[in-house]
Each structure stands twice: as structure tokens, then as C-alpha cells.
Amino acid sequence: MVARACIRNVLRFEPHRRCFHSGYRNSQFQPSHRPRHGLSIVSHEPTRPQVTSLFSSRHAGNITTTTLPTTTNPPAAWAQTYHPPTTGLISHLPTRLIPFAELSRFDKPVGTYYLFMPCVFSTLLAGTLTTPLTPPLTILTTTALFFSGALIMRGAGCTINDIWDRNLDPHVARTRLRPLARGAVSLPSAIIYTGVQCLAGLAVLLQFPWSCFFYATPSLIFVALYPLAKRVTNYPQIMLGLTFSWGAMMGFPALGIDLLSHTPALIAAVCLYASNVAWTVLYDMVYAHMDLSDDKKAGIRSIARAHETSTKPILAGLAGVQTALLAGAGYALGMGPVYHLAVCGASVVGNGVQIWKVKLNDAQNCWWWFRYGVWITGGGIAAGMGLEYAAQYLGLYKEDVAGAHDSTVATKVAF
């Protein structure tokens, strides 16, 4: 009789036990009496946030609470709470402005450097095309303007990205504490802030020749579409490349060279742009491996997910494409041996070392190579182009040496 009574009591509590351990506890599953002998059920699961539900239950008039389930064994990073920055420039901002600075990633400038590099490449190439050569001071002031624009528009792009991803970021450990994801910035405020940044970017753009406005405007389409690409394709990095590489064309009109009226310059700009697209896909594929496990859980698509087991061969192929296209840009403009040795050499060595050394299953190692790859590869390419510009500026080439084609494709092109 005692055993039968115990079995009856266990069966009576079974619905409640199932609900409790699955992470939900609704009032309609509560037992109609308290357990005898003061027994209670103790959960060993992590504490979950309580959400108030106004839906009625069989206990009319009562407001019930529902315990939301969480991921089993969440990553260690998920246990972290947000702490305001204590170092860096944004730590000195008023507290209410810090979330907006974080939206623009002012505390993580590496993305700005990646956006800035194509602008440097195109400016240095374009500087060798004018007659006489563009003065070094003009090169410096032009690149300084480009850096200002890259800083502002990269911030605008990050804000747009976070607006689109506000429902995805909470599910990824690395992004769960972003301002929109943690609720530090409201959606209307983020939209207004995006508009302010775009206006600031327009103010910088208007400092360039008027033709730059028409060359730059189409890039906004890619800025807006990139976050959507993660939802519909395994290759959003290509869309990112089309966006981040736009500066590879902007240096030419910035120095007064109309791409549409000069075929060699147009061919060089297209090759330079395509080479930067390949480079962007390369470095962002490494970056995507940082979030690989979380992306799988959240359903976020990326080239790293699609080619997880064949990443390094793809990286090697992208590096080869980048180098070949850089060589094509130099050939179209009749560049000298310094260009081909220094620029193409920097691409081969920088990318080669990164592909060889990066540990794709180690998020910290991926971050290191992403963070410093912009200087190892991008900085090397920029230095090579700077050497070619210096060689021409100092008259180390005869005018007919670099122009291996006909006179219209000579090193110095008059416009």
C-alpha cells in the first residue's frame, strides 16, 4: 500500500517535473496541492530571466511567469556582463555618448583601416598619372581626407549593420553586448544617428572634386544590402568586398582623373577594385571563423560555414587572384619594376604568411591575424606603391621605360 501511494504521488508530480526541467513553468501545470512532508523541487540549472505573461490560464485573473530557456552550456563569454570602457578615447566621453561611439566601433578601428587601404592604393596609383606628377603634399592631404571619410562611413556602415542584426546579435557571444543588442540604444536613436553620420560623410565628400560625388554615391547601395546578404547567401563576404573596396576607384577622380574618359586608368581601377574584393573575402573569411560555432546555432550564413573544411585552399586561391589583379593594374598603367616587385611581392608574402600561420580553430589567433593583417599585407602593398611613386617622382625611370605599350599608356598621362 505504501509503495502504491508513492507511485501515485510521483505520477501526480510528473507534468510539473517535465515542464520545470524543460525550462518552462506555467501555472496550469502546477499541482493542486503542496507536496507532503515539506518536500520541494530544487533546480540545478542556471538562473533564467523571468518574463511576465498576461495570457490567462485556468486560474482566471492570475498573471503567470514563464522561464525562458537558454543555450545548454553557453560559451564562457556569454557569462560576461557589460562593463563601460576604462581605456581608449571613448572612455573619456560622457556616459550617454559611449554607446553611440561603440555603435560606430570607434573603440575597434581595424575595420576603418581596412576601408581606408583601398583609398590609399588608388591615390598612390593616380598620383603617378598626372603631368606633372601629383606633389607629395597633395597625396598626403588627399589620403587624410579619405581617412576621415573612412572613419565616418565605416561607423555608419556598422550602425546600419547593427540595426539589421539587432535580433541576431544577442545569439552570438561576440556581439551580444553591442549597444542595440543589449538595449543601450533604441532603434529610433540608432536610425537618427545613422543619418547624422551620413551627413558628416557627405560633408567630407564635398571637399573632393564634384565628380567624386557621382562615383561614391552607388556604394551606399552595397552598404545597405550587406547585412541582408547574411540571411540569403553563404557568401556575404563578397557583398562586403564590393562595399569595402569602393575606395579603390575613388583616388582617381579625387586627383582629377576621369575614369570614363581614359581607358588605361579605367582598366587599372577595375583591376585594383577586383583585387581588393578578393582581399576582403580573404581576411573576412578568417574573421568569420571566430564566430563559426555561434553562426551555426543562430543560422547566420558565411563562406566559413560553407567551406569549413577547405578554407585554406580557398584563401590561397583568393591571394593568387589578388596578386594577379594587382599585377594587371600595374601593367595597364605601365608601371616599372619597383611596382611589380614590391607590390606583388608584398601581396604574396603577406597573404602567404597569414594563410600558413593562422589557426582557424582558434578565435584569438584568427583575431590576431585579422587585426594585424591590414598592416602586414595592406601596409606592404601601400608601401610598394609608395616606392613606385617615389621612383617616378625622383626621375629614376626614363619616361619611355615604364610605357612598354604605346605613348598613350606611358607612365605619365596628361589630362
Main attributes of the structure:
415 residues, mainly alpha, two-stranded antiparallel ribbon, 60% helix, disordered C terminus, ubiquinone biosynthesis, 4-hydroxybenzoate polyprenyltransferase, mitochondrial, Prenyltransferase, transferase, transmembrane helix
Structural commentary:
The protein is mostly helical. It has a domain of about 210 residues. Helix content is about 60%, strand content about 0%. Helix 3 packs antiparallel against helix 11, helix 9 packs across helix 11 and helix 10 runs antiparallel to helix 11. Its EC number is 2.5.1.39.
Helix content: 55-70%
Strand content: under 5%
DSSP helical segment count: 17
Radius of gyration: 28 Å
Question: Mean pLDDT, rounded to whole units?
Answer: 81
Distance N to C terminus: 105 Å
Q: What's the helix-strand series? A: HEEHHHHHHHHHHHHHHHH
Judging from the principal axes of the Cα atoms, what is the shape?
Answer: globular
| Helix/strand/pairing category | mainly alpha
SSE inventory with pairings:
Blueprint: H1 2-21, E1 50-53, E2 64-67, H2 98-103, H3 110-127, H4 136-164, H5 179-182, H6 187-205, H7 211-216, H8 219-232, H9 236-244, H10 247-254, H11 263-288, H12 292-298, H13 303-306, H14 311-332, H15 337-357, H16 363-393, H17 399-402
GO biological process, one term: isoprenoid biosynthetic process
Catalytic activity: an all-trans-polyprenyl diphosphate + 4-hydroxybenzoate = a 4-hydroxy-3-(all-trans-polyprenyl)benzoate + diphosphate
InterPro entries: HB_polyprenyltransferase-like, Prenyltransferase, UbiA_prenyltransferase, UbiA_prenylTrfase_CS, UbiA_sf
